[in-house]
Amino acid sequence: MIISYGIDIMQPSRIQAAICAHGEGFLSRIYTTMEVESARRKRYQSGVMEVLTAYWSVKEATMKALGTGNRQGVKFKDIEVCHENSGRPYIELYGIAKEIADKLGVKNIFVSMSHLDDMVVAGVIFEG
Fold this sequence. Notes:
single chain, alpha+beta, two-stranded antiparallel sheet, 4 helices, 3-stranded antiparallel β-sheet, CATH 3.90.470.20, 5 strands
């Protein structure tokens, strides 16, 4: 049974502007070390900024699925975007984000992200 769904759309130029304005402080507040390292790997044809933007969108979509937005103590780093060996993305939740998901009865999380030119979109489905 689907418990909730979240979607987000973002422009890589907005993430790039935030990084230019706030530097490593922005990166370390939003992304885990693994996410930054993953985005910097050369295997992505889309480029670092598009990957970081996709991760941002997944985090925002997850917060929407949680029903919290980035309030109620949920932090961006409580949501980590990971990849299976096949490249398929999945999410690990930590802290308050995990507590809320557990209270909602979330058993499975499905994530999808895509980009085209100057737009990135991500969707997250919580299943019970």
